[in-house]
Specification:
Blueprint (H helix, E strand, L loop, with lengths): L3 E5 L3 H9 L4 E5 L17 H10 L3 E6 L8 H14 L3 E4 L2 H10 L5 E3 L8 H9 L4 E3 L6 H10 L3 E8 L11 H6 L29 E3 L4 H6 L4 E4 L6 H15 L6 H7 L5 E2 L1 H4 L12 H5 L5 H5 L9 E9 L4 E7 L2 E7 L3 E2 L7 H8 L7 E10 L3 E2 L2 H20 L23 E5 L12 E5 H6 L2 H6 L3 E4 L10 H10 L3 E4 L2 H10 L2 E4 L8 H9 L4 E3 L6 H5 L7 E7 L2 E5 L16 E5 L5 E7 L3 E5 L4 E2 L10 E5 L5 H13 L18
Parallel strand pairs: 1-2, 1-9, 2-3, 3-4, 4-5, 5-6, 6-7, 7-9, 8-10, 11-15, 17-18, 17-29, 18-19, 19-20, 20-21, 21-22, 22-23, 23-29
Antiparallel strand pairs: 7-8, 11-12, 12-13, 14-16, 23-28, 24-27, 25-26, 26-27
Helix pairs in contact: 1-9, 2-3, 2-15, 3-4, 4-20, 5-19, 9-10, 14-15
Length: 672
């Protein structure tokens, strides 16, 4: 089956460009709750018109509802669910488990797609998405062709991959750089793109800015491995960009040459990269928007605008004309719909009668409409004549009626299913947990010890040393889940508790029969998400550190919850290393630093050369604060010495303020 070409639309002109250039489907936002809130979008009643326009032309609409929501936004979210259901859109794309739950419970017949913001990057993650009721998963952009093939062949649902457009440095859904630096959360659609500024290391600048991807030359291979949908990034881009990208994608899928130079000119960052798909993740992947990139567009915009200036005649219709002495009828059908109109009674022909050929010539002139005549049949009694003007009028009326039929909304049934979550009752005194990057850092007496999988694998005696106190942190990014034999080995040694920073890890925990605890990477920002995690079998969850403390205090539900209360917070997770040199990793010991344009240093941790983490410049420290009733506080240690660990533990037990550089994070700020 031929994969669909899925195009972006930030507004009506982009939608028109996508449809007229041959997109099979378009994804767009309905107003709020989408990851491109700065785009024009289709709120304020415009969604229904957009869906109607596309459906007339045989194009599907996928609506993005792919942001994290807060408790107080759930009523507005329900209104959005009802609006999308009423529009008859073809699918929704979601990130938050709470959003998935509201669509599932209110509008179960509307297909749901797992957004790339869910960071699904391996087979276990895709299978869990299927268990959650998603019919399609949008895979992470960081995957190689072989990794995509492995997932697509085994996950049991449709897969969608990006083939062109911008690349975030961070794995989608795992970035808190914008929120931490400026209070604008990418997870809520307000990313300010601070990564595109000049973060530099000793060798190069703009070390967090990747070139745009272009995988158009690989679309045949992607189709062969079973990818269902080819997605083009760019809901913030102009219509000429959409037109160029869709036109190029169609040509590539048809095995034809495409205009890469115009595509590069209309928008790129120092050209394109295919580093993720090919696995060549080196310095050539990095680039930023230079003056030449900006000025190049002016030379191609007029040519690209011509691509969508005229209506694309892509919808086949079958016409049947009948003329008897008493009446004329024209039926125009496009399965399963058809429109029939009556014309004036024909006249006896004085000279030239209306023949089937004359009628076909008149009725086939469908220019300016999305229709073309696939088949024509005529039954005309001998000796009759109808003016061509009357035939033209019948054609226009029939096509208008057919357009109305095709564009008529087909709403989904909405159920009444209110959110009911009991209040949370936390203990007077929370447990204090400690998460360590290295086993050698461990010092102190904590209620729970959390260590990365790699540390426990290297030192299996740790399992016996800490017993039921031990939780093994599964990697935030685990690109080859064939490695799950490592987890199986540790389960055999006695581990029975894992920390899940990504949904794939929840799937592994369920498969292995061990207790799963949710990490901050699961982005729990509301009570309903906590409830959904509990339904998945989790025994506790760490609330997102993007949520303000007063809202954390108001979270409901029975699932035990806590926060990261100390530590250099993880601001990014990435597969392309920002500190790698031209000659590769060299002698890198696994800890490096990037410096921003103001001279502030941000540590970079390497995790077994599989992925990296950008840490905040200073640690979060709120020991002296009056915290709400939480079940646990996690002290998240990364670079600290054992002596520093001991000092921090004492500060938290005695509620002492730190005299060192620190931040209160986002707990005492209201983010967008």
């Amino acid at each position: 089956m031929r994969p669909e070409i899925l195009a972006p639309a930030g507004g009506m002109e982009q939608l028109i460009a996508a449809v007229r250039c041959g997109a099979d489907a378009v994804y767009l936002g309905a107003g709020g709750f989408n990851a491109r809130r700065s785009a024009q979008n289709f709120g304020e009643g415009r969604l229904a018109g957009a869906v109607s326009y596309a459906h007339v032309r045989g194009v599907k609409i996928h609506v993005t509802v792919n942001t994290l929501v807060m408790d107080q936004e759930l009523p507005a979210l329900d209104d959005t669910v009802r609006e999308i259901a009423a529009s008859g859109a073809d699918a929704v794309i979601v990130q938050d488990l709470a959003v998935n739950a509201r669509f599932r419970d209110l509008c179960p017949d509307l297909p749901r797609h797992a957004s790339t913001q869910m960071t699904v990057h391996n087979l276990d993650g895709a299978r869990l998405a299927a268990d959650l009721g998603f019919s399609r998963v949008v895979l992470a952009r960081e995957l190689t062709l072989r990794e995509i093939e492995y997932i697509a062949a085994r996950c049991g649902i449709e897969t969608e991959v990006f083939i062109h457009g911008a690349l975030c440095m961070c794995a989608s859904g795992q970035c808190c750089l914008s929120s931490m630096l400026g209070g604008r959360s990418g997870n809520r659609g307000y990313c300010a793109q601070p990564c595109r500024l000049d973060f530099h290391n000793a060798e190069r600048g703009y070390a967090l800015s990747l070139k745009d991807m272009s995988h158009l030359r690989y679309v045949k291979e992607l189709a062969d491995v079973g990818v269902s949908s080819f997605k083009i990034e760019g809901r913030m881009k102009r219509p000429e960009y959409v037109a160029a990208a869709v036109t190029a994608a169609r040509a590539a899928l048809d095995g034809e040459a495409y205009d890469e130079e115009s595509l590069r000119a209309v928008f790129s960052r120092s050209g394109f990269t295919d580093g993720y798909l090919t696995g060549k993740r080196d310095v050539t992947m990095f680039g930023y928007r230079e003056k030449e990139d900006v000025t190049a567009a002016s030379g191609v915009l007029g040519k690209l605008a011509n691509l969508y200036r005229a209506e694309r005649q892509s919808v086949p219709v079958d016409m049947e004309l009948k003329m008897t002495p008493s009446e004329t009828t024209l039926r125009v059908g496009c399965d399963p719909l058809a429109a029939t109109v009556r014309g004036p009674s024909p006249q006896p022909a004085r000279t030239l009668p209306t023949t089937p050929q004359i009628a076909e010539n008149a009725l086939s002139k469908t220019g300016g409409t999305p229709y073309f005549v696939r088949s024509f049949a005529a039954e005309i009694a001998p000796g009759l004549m109808l003016p061509v003007s009357a035939l033209n009028a019948m054609r226009r009326e029939a096509l208008e009626k057919l357009t109305d039929l095709r564009g008529e909304a087909k709403p989904y049934k909405i159920l009444e299913n209110p959110v009911k979550i009991d209040a949370h009752t936390g203990p007077e005194t929370p447990q204090i947990w400690a998460r360590f990057e290295k086993a050698s850092q461990i010092r102190g007496n904590f209620d729970r010890i959390i260590l990365p999988l790699s540390e426990v694998e290297k030192r299996p005696q740790i399992v016996e040393n800490y017993g039921d106190k031990l939780t093994v942190e599964l990697p935030s990014l685990f690109f080859d889940t064939n490695k799950t034999e490592i987890v199986e080995k540790l389960v055999d040694l006695g581990i029975n508790d894992v920390l899940c920073e990504n949904l794939y890890a929840v799937g592994i925990a369920r498969k292995m029969g061990v207790a799963a605890r949710g990490g901050a990477g699961l982005n729990a920002l509301n009570s309903l998400t906590l409830s959904e995690l509990e339904k998945l079998g989790l025994v506790s969850a760490t609330v997102s550190f993007e949520l303000a403390m007063n809202r954390i205090a108001a979270l409901n539900g029975a699932l035990p919850r806590g926060i990261i209360a100390y530590g250099r917070l993880p601001l990014m997770r990435f597969r392309a290393c920002p500190v790698k040199g031209k000659n590769g990793c060299g002698r890198c010991a696994g800890v490096s630093r990037l410096t921003d344009r103001r001279g502030v240093e941000f540590p970079v941790l390497c995790h077994d050369r599989e992925y990296g983490t950008l840490l905040n410049s200073v640690p979060l420290h709120i020991a002296e604060k009056n915290l709400p009733k939480l079940d646990f506080l996690t002290l998240w240690f990364t670079l600290e010495t054992p002596e520093e660990v001991e000092r921090v533990e004492n500060e938290y037990r005695d509620h002492l303020a730190s005299d060192r550089a620190r931040t209160g994070g986002l707990y005492y700020r209201q983010i967008k």
